[in-house]
Write a structure and sequence with these properties.
By secondary structure, the protein is an alpha/beta fold. Helices cover about 45% and strands about 15% of the residues. The protein has twelve helices and nine strands. The chain has helices spanning about 15-30, 40-50, 90, 95-105, 125-135, 160-165, 180-185, 200-205, 220-225, 240-250, 250-270, 270-295; strands spanning about 1-5, 35-40, 55-60, 110-115, 140-145, 170-175, 190, 210-215, 230-235. The relative contact order is 0.14. Pfam families: Glycos_transf_1. GO terms for molecular function: glycosyltransferase activity. InterPro entries: Glyco_trans_1.
Length: about 300
């Protein structure tokens, strides 16, 4: 049996009772498993401290489809169905410009994106405060949120908060199947989560050529190289988040350089094929060992 850990549900800073329950369950799972595939090295350090045998642990990492998530280029043109009245300029319109036009975002406006379920744990309280502060400053920036509302969750973002955020200019796009196209329209990605395993949306954004502003927590630290591919800020700190967003919004050269480095990091570290290969190799190795032991 292989236990794949997609982020621990308790962190060292959590209350003792929660840590005790979660860590006990993780130890029990490790006793029943032949291998433990862990997404990030900080979780490995925690598991080793609570007694999970190192011989069972392997760093899996995480990844995304790099053929789907990539920076927009001049060659990435929207494929419109040509009709008799289709104008040449329409056919050559870039996907980025098309989507920004649909959102009512001008060429000079900095589009800040967030992708994720609408639950408070994703840091929306701080994102909304940052958006409101930036609007008050008169900065030419727009925030878009892509993801489903989750009213069934105990920490789901309530309708009153959503309405207040909309009044501050935040656009809520709901669940979208064309998220890779939306990344192409963005200039900056924001992830203000309180906890993550190894955030897929941040990897997607980085692979799409976006600088990423994320909270300084495990998982996010594996995606963002501080000051190089983006910025890390303390969790639950709206002022720090606002300052970081302003730093990148006001500096197009820094945005471009960070985005270029983010793509390079994504291509080197976030290819989902590598994760698939490690997973398959682990199962094949264990199956081979089982066959030998039965001979």
């Amino acid at each position: 049996m292989v236990n794949t850990v997609h982020g621990l549900y308790a962190l060292p800073e959590d209350k003792f009772a929660k840590r005790s329950v979660v860590y006990s369950l993780e130890r029990l799972a490790s006793m029943c498993s032949d291998a433990e595939l862990i997404q990030n090295p900080e979780d490995i350090a925690t598991l080793l401290k609570i007694g999970v045998p190192s011989k069972k642990i392997r760093l899996l990492g995480n990844g995304v489809d790099l053929t789907r998530f990539k920076p927009p280029t001049d060659g990435d043109r929207e494929s419109f169905e040509e009709t008799a009245d289709t104008q040449p300029e329409t056919r050559s319109q870039s996907l980025r410009d098309k989507l920004r036009g649909e959102l009512g975002v001008g060429a000079s406006t900095v589009l800040c994106g967030v992708v994720g379920r609408l639950v408070w744990e994703k840091g929306y309280r701080e994102v909304f405060e940052a958006a409101e502060s930036i609007k008050r400053l008169g900065i030419d920036a727009v925030f878009v949120v892509v993801g489903p509302r989750d009213p069934e969750k105990s920490d789901g973002v309530d309708e009153r908060a959503i309405a207040a955020a909309e009044a501050s200019g935040v656009r809520f796009l709901g669940m979208r199947s064309d998220v890779e196209s939306l990344y192409a329209a963005m200039d900056l990605y924001v992830l203000a989560s309180y906890r993550e395993g190894f955030p897929r949306s941040a990897m997607e954004a980085a692979a799409s050529g976006l600088p990423v502003i994320a909270t300084d927590i495990r998982g996010c630290r594996q995606v963002v190289d501080q000051g190089l591919t983006g910025l890390l800020v303390p969790a639950r700190d709206a002022q720090a988040l606002t300052s970081a967003i302003l730093e990148i919004v006001k500096d197009p050269i820094k945005r471009s350089e960070m985005g270029t480095r983010a793509v390079a990091k994504a291509r080197a570290e976030f290819d989902h094929q590598r994760v698939i290969d490690i997973t398959l190799e682990t199962y094949e190795r264990l199956l081979a060992a089982k066959r030998v032991s039965r001979q």
